[in-house]
Amino acid sequence: MSEVMIYLDHAATTPADPAVVKAMEPYHSEKFGNPSTIYKIGREVRAAIDEARDKIADFIGADSSEIIFTSCGTESDNLALIGSAFANENKGNHIIASSVEHHAVIEPLKFLARRGFEVTHVPVDEFGEVDPADIKKAITGKTILISVMHANNEIGTIQPVTEIGQIAKERGIIFHTDAVQTICSVPVNVDDIGANLLAISAHKFYGPKGVGALYVRKGTKMVAHIYGGEQERRRRAGTENVSGIIGMAKAIEVASGRMENDAVRIAMLRDKLIDGLLSKVEESHLNGHPTKRLPNNVNIAFRYVEGESMLLNLDAHGIYASTGSACSSATLEPSHVLLAIGLSHEVAHGSLRFTLGRSTTESQIETVIEKLPPVVERLRMMSPLYKR
User: Fold this and answer.
1) Which of 167, 194, 264, 372 is the most buried (most CB within 10 A)?
2) Which domains does the chain carry?
3) pLDDT band, residue 305 (cuts 50/70/90)
4) pTM summary value
5) Is 327 in the active site?
Protein backbone atom coordinates (compact mmCIF):
# COMPACT_ATOMS: atom_id res chain seq x y z
CA MET A 1 0.00 0.00 0.00
CA SER A 2 1.44 3.36 -1.07
CA GLU A 3 1.77 6.18 1.45
CA VAL A 4 2.06 8.78 -1.31
CA MET A 5 -1.21 10.58 -2.11
CA ILE A 6 -1.98 11.75 -5.62
CA TYR A 7 -5.34 13.48 -5.31
CA LEU A 8 -7.09 13.82 -8.66
CA ASP A 9 -10.71 14.28 -7.60
CA HIS A 10 -10.89 18.06 -7.25
CA ALA A 11 -14.32 18.13 -8.93
CA ALA A 12 -15.64 16.25 -5.89
CA THR A 13 -14.06 18.60 -3.36
CA THR A 14 -10.91 20.59 -2.71
CA PRO A 15 -8.80 21.11 0.43
CA ALA A 16 -9.40 24.46 2.09
CA ASP A 17 -6.67 26.96 1.30
CA PRO A 18 -4.60 27.85 4.41
CA ALA A 19 -5.54 31.50 3.95
CA VAL A 20 -9.20 30.48 4.03
CA VAL A 21 -8.80 28.53 7.26
CA LYS A 22 -7.00 31.48 8.84
CA ALA A 23 -9.69 33.94 7.77
CA MET A 24 -12.43 31.73 9.21
CA GLU A 25 -10.82 31.01 12.58
CA PRO A 26 -11.80 34.21 14.47
CA TYR A 27 -15.47 33.64 13.64
CA HIS A 28 -15.44 30.43 15.65
CA SER A 29 -14.21 32.18 18.78
CA GLU A 30 -13.87 35.90 19.57
CA LYS A 31 -16.04 37.09 16.64
CA PHE A 32 -18.96 34.88 17.57
CA GLY A 33 -21.79 37.41 17.52
CA ASN A 34 -25.13 36.77 15.83
CA PRO A 35 -25.29 39.09 12.78
CA SER A 36 -29.00 39.73 13.38
CA THR A 37 -28.38 41.43 16.74
CA ILE A 38 -27.98 45.20 17.05
CA TYR A 39 -25.20 45.41 19.62
CA LYS A 40 -21.54 45.84 18.72
CA ILE A 41 -20.31 42.25 18.30
CA GLY A 42 -23.36 41.47 16.17
CA ARG A 43 -22.88 44.59 14.03
CA GLU A 44 -19.22 43.71 13.48
CA VAL A 45 -20.15 40.26 12.20
CA ARG A 46 -22.86 41.76 9.98
CA ALA A 47 -20.29 44.12 8.50
CA ALA A 48 -17.99 41.16 7.77
CA ILE A 49 -20.82 39.32 5.98
CA ASP A 50 -21.62 42.43 3.95
CA GLU A 51 -17.96 42.72 2.93
CA ALA A 52 -17.89 39.05 1.92
CA ARG A 53 -21.08 39.51 -0.12
CA ASP A 54 -19.48 42.47 -1.92
CA LYS A 55 -16.38 40.41 -2.82
CA ILE A 56 -18.40 37.52 -4.22
CA ALA A 57 -20.69 39.84 -6.16
CA ASP A 58 -17.78 41.77 -7.66
CA PHE A 59 -16.12 38.52 -8.77
CA ILE A 60 -19.08 37.53 -10.95
CA GLY A 61 -20.09 41.03 -12.05
CA ALA A 62 -23.17 41.25 -9.83
CA ASP A 63 -24.58 43.66 -7.28
CA SER A 64 -24.19 42.61 -3.65
CA SER A 65 -27.98 42.71 -3.19
CA GLU A 66 -28.22 39.87 -5.74
CA ILE A 67 -26.23 37.35 -3.66
CA ILE A 68 -28.13 34.92 -1.42
CA PHE A 69 -26.06 32.71 0.90
CA THR A 70 -26.98 29.03 1.11
CA SER A 71 -25.49 25.84 2.57
CA CYS A 72 -24.15 24.41 -0.72
CA GLY A 73 -24.53 24.26 -4.49
CA THR A 74 -27.35 21.75 -4.20
CA GLU A 75 -29.39 24.08 -2.04
CA SER A 76 -28.67 26.93 -4.43
CA ASP A 77 -29.98 24.90 -7.37
CA ASN A 78 -33.06 23.81 -5.40
CA LEU A 79 -33.83 27.37 -4.34
CA ALA A 80 -33.35 28.62 -7.90
CA LEU A 81 -35.53 26.02 -9.61
CA ILE A 82 -38.29 25.44 -7.09
CA GLY A 83 -38.40 29.05 -5.93
CA SER A 84 -38.66 30.53 -9.43
CA ALA A 85 -41.01 27.84 -10.78
CA PHE A 86 -43.61 28.34 -8.06
CA ALA A 87 -43.25 32.13 -8.22
CA ASN A 88 -43.99 32.15 -11.95
CA GLU A 89 -46.52 29.34 -12.35
CA ASN A 90 -49.21 31.89 -13.17
CA LYS A 91 -47.30 32.50 -16.44
CA GLY A 92 -46.78 28.85 -17.38
CA ASN A 93 -45.64 25.43 -16.21
CA HIS A 94 -42.98 24.39 -18.74
CA ILE A 95 -39.30 24.02 -17.88
CA ILE A 96 -36.39 23.16 -20.19
CA ALA A 97 -33.13 21.55 -19.06
CA SER A 98 -30.27 19.67 -20.68
CA SER A 99 -30.02 15.89 -20.40
CA VAL A 100 -26.65 16.11 -18.61
CA GLU A 101 -27.52 18.24 -15.60
CA HIS A 102 -26.22 17.47 -12.12
CA HIS A 103 -28.53 15.56 -9.76
CA ALA A 104 -28.91 18.83 -7.82
CA VAL A 105 -30.94 20.00 -10.83
CA ILE A 106 -32.45 16.68 -11.95
CA GLU A 107 -34.04 15.87 -8.60
CA PRO A 108 -35.80 19.22 -7.99
CA LEU A 109 -37.07 19.03 -11.57
CA LYS A 110 -38.53 15.60 -10.79
CA PHE A 111 -40.17 17.15 -7.73
CA LEU A 112 -41.64 19.93 -9.86
CA ALA A 113 -42.88 17.39 -12.42
CA ARG A 114 -44.77 15.62 -9.62
CA ARG A 115 -46.36 18.98 -8.79
CA GLY A 116 -47.74 19.49 -12.28
CA PHE A 117 -44.87 21.15 -14.12
CA GLU A 118 -43.84 19.85 -17.55
CA VAL A 119 -40.09 19.27 -17.97
CA THR A 120 -38.35 18.89 -21.34
CA HIS A 121 -34.83 17.44 -21.32
CA VAL A 122 -32.94 18.58 -24.41
CA PRO A 123 -30.37 16.04 -25.68
CA VAL A 124 -26.66 16.70 -26.18
CA ASP A 125 -24.24 15.64 -28.92
CA GLU A 126 -21.47 13.05 -28.61
CA PHE A 127 -19.29 15.60 -26.81
CA GLY A 128 -21.98 16.44 -24.25
CA GLU A 129 -22.70 19.86 -25.74
CA VAL A 130 -26.19 21.35 -25.95
CA ASP A 131 -27.19 22.96 -29.23
CA PRO A 132 -28.80 26.37 -28.50
CA ALA A 133 -31.04 25.79 -31.52
CA ASP A 134 -32.51 22.76 -29.76
CA ILE A 135 -33.21 24.86 -26.69
CA LYS A 136 -34.97 27.41 -28.88
CA LYS A 137 -37.08 24.71 -30.56
CA ALA A 138 -38.17 23.33 -27.19
CA ILE A 139 -39.65 26.65 -26.05
CA THR A 140 -43.42 26.85 -25.89
CA GLY A 141 -45.85 29.56 -24.87
CA LYS A 142 -45.81 28.10 -21.36
CA THR A 143 -42.03 28.00 -20.87
CA ILE A 144 -41.02 29.91 -17.74
CA LEU A 145 -37.55 28.53 -16.97
CA ILE A 146 -34.45 27.18 -18.75
CA SER A 147 -31.68 25.42 -16.83
CA VAL A 148 -28.37 24.52 -18.47
CA MET A 149 -25.18 24.04 -16.45
CA HIS A 150 -22.14 26.17 -17.26
CA ALA A 151 -19.86 23.15 -17.47
CA ASN A 152 -20.45 19.47 -16.86
CA ASN A 153 -19.03 18.06 -13.65
CA GLU A 154 -18.31 14.63 -15.12
CA ILE A 155 -16.95 15.15 -18.63
CA GLY A 156 -15.91 18.80 -18.36
CA THR A 157 -17.73 20.09 -21.44
CA ILE A 158 -18.36 23.84 -21.27
CA GLN A 159 -21.83 24.71 -22.53
CA PRO A 160 -22.77 27.63 -24.83
CA VAL A 161 -24.50 29.41 -21.98
CA THR A 162 -24.11 32.89 -23.47
CA GLU A 163 -26.11 31.92 -26.55
CA ILE A 164 -28.71 30.14 -24.42
CA GLY A 165 -28.95 33.12 -22.08
CA GLN A 166 -29.60 35.40 -25.04
CA ILE A 167 -32.38 33.14 -26.30
CA ALA A 168 -33.98 33.14 -22.84
CA LYS A 169 -33.71 36.92 -22.56
CA GLU A 170 -35.31 37.47 -25.97
CA ARG A 171 -38.29 35.34 -24.96
CA GLY A 172 -38.60 36.73 -21.42
CA ILE A 173 -37.73 33.36 -19.86
CA ILE A 174 -35.74 32.91 -16.63
CA PHE A 175 -32.32 31.35 -17.24
CA HIS A 176 -30.63 29.33 -14.50
CA THR A 177 -27.12 27.93 -14.73
CA ASP A 178 -25.24 25.69 -12.32
CA ALA A 179 -21.76 27.25 -12.21
CA VAL A 180 -20.47 25.08 -9.36
CA GLN A 181 -17.66 23.62 -11.50
CA THR A 182 -16.67 26.84 -13.26
CA ILE A 183 -16.39 29.47 -10.51
CA CYS A 184 -12.67 30.16 -9.96
CA SER A 185 -11.79 27.77 -12.79
CA VAL A 186 -12.82 29.82 -15.83
CA PRO A 187 -14.15 33.40 -16.05
CA VAL A 188 -17.77 33.72 -14.91
CA ASN A 189 -19.73 36.94 -15.44
CA VAL A 190 -23.48 36.94 -14.95
CA ASP A 191 -24.09 39.64 -17.57
CA ASP A 192 -21.94 37.91 -20.19
CA ILE A 193 -23.85 34.69 -19.55
CA GLY A 194 -27.21 36.40 -19.29
CA ALA A 195 -28.11 34.41 -16.20
CA ASN A 196 -31.01 35.26 -13.95
CA LEU A 197 -29.96 32.59 -11.46
CA LEU A 198 -26.47 31.13 -10.91
CA ALA A 199 -25.36 28.57 -8.32
CA ILE A 200 -22.02 28.56 -6.44
CA SER A 201 -20.43 26.12 -3.96
CA ALA A 202 -17.38 27.12 -1.91
CA HIS A 203 -15.75 23.73 -1.40
CA LYS A 204 -15.16 23.36 -5.14
CA PHE A 205 -12.64 26.23 -5.13
CA TYR A 206 -10.62 25.66 -1.93
CA GLY A 207 -13.25 27.10 0.38
CA PRO A 208 -15.08 25.38 3.23
CA LYS A 209 -17.82 22.78 2.92
CA GLY A 210 -21.33 23.69 4.03
CA VAL A 211 -21.64 27.07 2.34
CA GLY A 212 -22.73 28.23 -1.10
CA ALA A 213 -24.43 31.11 -2.81
CA LEU A 214 -27.12 31.84 -5.35
CA TYR A 215 -27.02 34.83 -7.65
CA VAL A 216 -30.55 36.18 -8.20
CA ARG A 217 -30.82 38.92 -10.80
CA LYS A 218 -32.85 41.93 -9.69
CA GLY A 219 -36.46 41.53 -10.73
CA THR A 220 -36.40 37.73 -10.80
CA LYS A 221 -39.46 36.46 -8.94
CA MET A 222 -38.84 33.75 -6.38
CA VAL A 223 -40.69 32.27 -3.43
CA ALA A 224 -38.89 31.61 -0.17
CA HIS A 225 -36.98 28.38 0.32
CA ILE A 226 -36.78 28.31 4.12
CA TYR A 227 -39.27 30.19 6.28
CA GLY A 228 -38.47 31.84 9.58
CA GLY A 229 -36.47 35.00 10.10
CA GLU A 230 -35.64 37.95 7.87
CA GLN A 231 -32.24 36.69 6.70
CA GLU A 232 -31.18 36.79 3.04
CA ARG A 233 -33.99 39.13 2.07
CA ARG A 234 -36.58 36.65 3.32
CA ARG A 235 -35.58 34.11 0.68
CA ARG A 236 -33.58 31.82 2.95
CA ALA A 237 -34.26 32.20 6.67
CA GLY A 238 -31.87 31.05 9.40
CA THR A 239 -28.77 32.35 11.15
CA GLU A 240 -25.98 32.69 8.64
CA ASN A 241 -22.97 30.36 8.51
CA VAL A 242 -20.69 33.28 9.28
CA SER A 243 -17.31 31.53 9.20
CA GLY A 244 -18.30 29.67 6.03
CA ILE A 245 -19.31 32.89 4.29
CA ILE A 246 -16.04 34.56 5.30
CA GLY A 247 -14.14 31.51 4.06
CA MET A 248 -15.94 31.47 0.72
CA ALA A 249 -15.15 35.13 0.11
CA LYS A 250 -11.51 34.55 1.03
CA ALA A 251 -11.31 31.57 -1.33
CA ILE A 252 -12.59 33.77 -4.14
CA GLU A 253 -10.10 36.48 -3.21
CA VAL A 254 -7.23 33.96 -3.35
CA ALA A 255 -8.46 32.51 -6.64
CA SER A 256 -8.85 35.89 -8.31
CA GLY A 257 -5.11 36.46 -8.04
CA ARG A 258 -4.05 33.12 -9.49
CA MET A 259 -6.91 31.71 -11.56
CA GLU A 260 -5.51 32.59 -14.98
CA ASN A 261 -2.04 31.15 -14.32
CA ASP A 262 -3.49 28.08 -12.61
CA ALA A 263 -5.75 27.38 -15.58
CA VAL A 264 -2.85 27.48 -18.04
CA ARG A 265 -0.61 25.22 -15.94
CA ILE A 266 -3.36 22.74 -15.08
CA ALA A 267 -4.58 22.56 -18.68
CA MET A 268 -1.06 21.59 -19.78
CA LEU A 269 -1.01 18.79 -17.22
CA ARG A 270 -4.54 17.77 -18.27
CA ASP A 271 -3.44 17.41 -21.89
CA LYS A 272 -0.33 15.48 -20.85
CA LEU A 273 -2.50 13.01 -18.92
CA ILE A 274 -4.97 12.64 -21.79
CA ASP A 275 -2.25 12.09 -24.38
CA GLY A 276 -0.29 9.73 -22.14
CA LEU A 277 -3.23 7.46 -21.30
CA LEU A 278 -4.72 7.38 -24.78
CA SER A 279 -1.35 6.51 -26.31
CA LYS A 280 -0.58 3.75 -23.80
CA VAL A 281 -4.00 2.09 -23.48
CA GLU A 282 -5.62 0.71 -26.59
CA GLU A 283 -9.38 0.90 -27.03
CA SER A 284 -9.70 3.99 -24.87
CA HIS A 285 -11.15 7.36 -25.76
CA LEU A 286 -11.76 10.79 -24.25
CA ASN A 287 -15.26 11.60 -23.03
CA GLY A 288 -16.40 15.19 -23.42
CA HIS A 289 -15.43 17.96 -25.80
CA PRO A 290 -11.78 17.87 -26.93
CA THR A 291 -11.27 21.63 -26.63
CA LYS A 292 -14.35 23.22 -25.02
CA ARG A 293 -13.72 21.63 -21.64
CA LEU A 294 -12.69 22.62 -18.13
CA PRO A 295 -8.91 23.07 -17.76
CA ASN A 296 -8.71 20.39 -15.04
CA ASN A 297 -11.03 17.67 -16.36
CA VAL A 298 -9.98 14.32 -17.85
CA ASN A 299 -12.64 11.66 -18.42
CA ILE A 300 -11.57 8.56 -20.32
CA ALA A 301 -13.48 5.40 -21.22
CA PHE A 302 -11.55 2.12 -21.11
CA ARG A 303 -13.30 -0.77 -22.85
CA TYR A 304 -13.55 -4.26 -21.28
CA VAL A 305 -12.84 -3.08 -17.75
CA GLU A 306 -14.95 -1.86 -14.84
CA GLY A 307 -14.43 1.57 -13.30
CA GLU A 308 -14.65 0.64 -9.62
CA SER A 309 -12.04 -2.07 -10.09
CA MET A 310 -9.67 0.46 -11.62
CA LEU A 311 -10.30 2.86 -8.73
CA LEU A 312 -9.49 0.20 -6.12
CA ASN A 313 -6.25 -0.66 -7.90
CA LEU A 314 -5.30 3.01 -8.19
CA ASP A 315 -6.11 3.46 -4.51
CA ALA A 316 -3.44 0.87 -3.71
CA HIS A 317 -0.96 3.21 -5.41
CA GLY A 318 -2.26 6.25 -3.49
CA ILE A 319 -4.02 7.64 -6.57
CA TYR A 320 -7.50 9.02 -5.96
CA ALA A 321 -9.92 9.58 -8.83
CA SER A 322 -13.59 8.83 -9.49
CA THR A 323 -16.00 7.26 -11.93
CA GLY A 324 -18.21 10.34 -12.09
CA SER A 325 -20.10 12.66 -9.78
CA ALA A 326 -19.43 12.24 -6.05
CA CYS A 327 -23.15 12.83 -5.46
CA SER A 328 -24.04 9.62 -7.32
CA SER A 329 -21.15 7.40 -6.22
CA ALA A 330 -23.41 5.12 -4.17
CA THR A 331 -25.45 3.96 -7.17
CA LEU A 332 -24.56 1.00 -9.38
CA GLU A 333 -26.25 2.58 -12.39
CA PRO A 334 -23.99 3.96 -15.12
CA SER A 335 -23.63 7.72 -15.39
CA HIS A 336 -26.61 9.39 -17.05
CA VAL A 337 -24.14 11.84 -18.57
CA LEU A 338 -22.14 9.10 -20.30
CA LEU A 339 -25.31 7.43 -21.53
CA ALA A 340 -26.52 10.81 -22.85
CA ILE A 341 -23.42 11.18 -25.05
CA GLY A 342 -24.07 7.78 -26.59
CA LEU A 343 -21.90 5.38 -24.60
CA SER A 344 -23.17 1.87 -24.00
CA HIS A 345 -23.77 0.73 -20.41
CA GLU A 346 -20.65 -1.42 -20.62
CA VAL A 347 -18.35 1.40 -21.79
CA ALA A 348 -19.91 3.91 -19.39
CA HIS A 349 -19.08 1.57 -16.49
CA GLY A 350 -15.45 1.58 -17.65
CA SER A 351 -14.90 5.33 -17.52
CA LEU A 352 -12.69 7.21 -15.07
CA ARG A 353 -12.69 10.90 -14.18
CA PHE A 354 -9.48 12.64 -13.12
CA THR A 355 -9.81 16.26 -12.01
CA LEU A 356 -6.59 18.15 -11.37
CA GLY A 357 -5.92 20.99 -8.95
CA ARG A 358 -3.39 23.43 -7.56
CA SER A 359 -1.36 20.69 -5.89
CA THR A 360 -1.10 18.54 -9.02
CA THR A 361 2.44 18.18 -10.34
CA GLU A 362 3.94 16.88 -13.55
CA SER A 363 5.57 14.00 -11.69
CA GLN A 364 2.16 12.97 -10.31
CA ILE A 365 0.73 12.93 -13.83
CA GLU A 366 3.67 10.82 -14.99
CA THR A 367 3.01 8.40 -12.14
CA VAL A 368 -0.62 7.97 -13.21
CA ILE A 369 0.48 7.40 -16.82
CA GLU A 370 2.90 4.76 -15.53
CA LYS A 371 0.58 2.99 -13.07
CA LEU A 372 -2.80 2.94 -14.80
CA PRO A 373 -2.04 1.07 -18.08
CA PRO A 374 -0.80 -2.11 -16.31
CA VAL A 375 -3.91 -1.98 -14.10
CA VAL A 376 -6.16 -1.83 -17.15
CA GLU A 377 -4.25 -4.65 -18.84
CA ARG A 378 -4.43 -6.89 -15.77
CA LEU A 379 -8.15 -6.32 -15.33
CA ARG A 380 -8.81 -6.90 -19.02
CA MET A 381 -7.05 -10.25 -18.87
CA MET A 382 -9.68 -11.33 -16.35
CA SER A 383 -12.57 -10.17 -18.53
CA PRO A 384 -14.29 -12.72 -20.82
CA LEU A 385 -15.18 -9.86 -23.18
CA TYR A 386 -11.61 -8.80 -23.87
CA LYS A 387 -10.17 -9.93 -27.21
CA ARG A 388 -6.65 -11.08 -26.43
Assistant:
1) 372
2) 6-14+259-381 (3.90.1150.10), 18-256 (3.40.640.10)
3) very high
4) 0.95
5) yes
